[in-house]
Specification:
This protein is of the alpha+beta class. It has helices at residues 19-23, 44-48, 52-56, 65-68, 71-76, 78-84, 120-158, 185-189, 193-207, 261-271, 276-283, 287-301, 306-314, and strands at 9-14, 25-29, 32-35, 63-64, 89-99, 102-112, 162-167, 172-178, 222-231, 240-248, 330-333. It has 13 helices and 11 strands. A 6-stranded antiparallel β-sheet has the order 3-2-1-6-5-4. It has a 5-stranded antiparallel β-sheet with strand order 9-10-7-8-11, with helices on both faces. Residues 252-317 form the HTH luxR-type domain.
Length: 335
């Protein structure tokens, strides 16, 4: 923007109209990048004296501060008071970044007393470049979110086990991330494609039936720890994918191995917080039958209540757990 409208200072605040968005900001004075000085509890609109609802209702993109408030008011607004004054900036041009009724941020330019006022030509140029700044801001925010998601996925894998993306349409595994010693795709993945696909679909379909939780499953000595869906994401080929989180089993069998299939399902629903009545409805059983399954599984696990059940199956002292042979995380994509 400064290449079109020369100014000694520039700033940009990413995010929406929350306190955190004003925290994620930076400014440039001459050629030096500086952090934005801010005070806790100040959000984007408050920092610049704007009302978000009014800003997003107009098609206008650029404003001179002299159009919005008097010089005395500008000097006392948090952003200008805490930042501009120290660098002797006395006038600014603001470009709110908004689309579809949402404010994504605010950027702008600042000039000192010895510099000329912002003119109508400067406003026109800022208006012209604003859509490109908005697009770049949205792309930056999306990239940041994708990086966070990727980090979260890898953090899951680093806790132990393997993540797999299964394309429902192509009936294949398209991506694998492992926290173990790596993945030999031809030797370890290709021979299991049919089994992985069948497992992913059965788990996904079971989960979609009235919030029913699929029973514990095994794949190559692994337990299915989690499952989710991803639709139309270019990172995964823009198809309908099922993400499986598989955890490696310890050498000894886990507590669920002591239970029958029915008892396992009752146990998982109990851990998920369902009542006996809800479990009976979900499984098509009578409440008395559910009570019988509960009594049996409690006896087999050597526990007496739901709290102990949670500790036994998913608590820090659980007897089965994902484990990592290495702290490294390896990811692979087919093709």
């Amino acid at each position: 923007m400064r290449s079109l409208v020369p100014a000694s200072g520039a700033f940009i605040c990413f995010g929406d109209d929350r306190t955190v968005s004003y925290a994620h900001s930076w400014r440039m004075v001459e050629d030096t990048v500086k952090p934005v000085r801010r005070r806790d509890g100040i959000n984007l609109a408050q920092a610049f004296g704007l009302e978000s609802r009014d800003v997003v209702r107009t098609a206008r993109r650029a404003y001179r501060t002299v159009e919005l408030y008097t010089d005395d008011i500008r000097k006392n607004l948090p952003y200008f008071r805490d930042n501009s004054a120290a660098d002797a900036f006395v006038r600014a041009l603001l470009v709110p970044l908004h689309a579809s009724g949402s404010l994504f941020g605010i950027c702008g330019l600042e000039r000192r007393q010895e510099e000329p006022d912002f003119t109508r030509v400067d406003l026109q140029r800022a208006e012209q470049v604003a859509p490109f700044v908005l697009a770049a801001t949205q792309a930056h925010m999306k990239s940041n979110e994708l990086q966070k998601e990727a980090t979260a996925l890898h953090s899951l894998a680093s806790c132990g086990g393997t993540l797999l993306a299964v394309d429902r349409g192509k009936r294949c595994v398209t991506w694998v991330a492992s926290s173990e010693e790596g993945v030999d795709w031809p030797a370890q993945v290709n021979p299991l494609v049919d089994e992985v696909f069948a497992l992913a679909i059965s788990q996904d379909d079971a989960r979609g039936q009235g919030d029913r939780i699929a029973p514990t499953s095994r794949l190559c000595e692994r337990t299915v720890l989690g499952i989710s869906n991803i639709e139309d994401d270019s990172l995964f080929g823009s198809g309908a994918c099922v993400i499986l989180h598989l955890g490696a089993l310890d050498g000894e069998s886990g507590p669920e191995d002591k239970l029958s299939t029915r008892e396992q399902e009752v146990a998982r629903l109990l851990v998920a917080g369902y009542s006996r009545i809800n479990i009976a409805a979900l499984m098509g059983l009578s409440e008395n039958t559910v009570r019988t399954y509960m009594r049996r599984l409690y006896t087999k696990l050597g526990i007496s209540n739901r709290v102990d059940l949670v500790r036994e199956l998913i608590g820090p002292t659980r007897k089965w757990s994902p484990h990592a042979r290495s702290n490294r995380s390896h990811s692979y994509t087919s093709g």
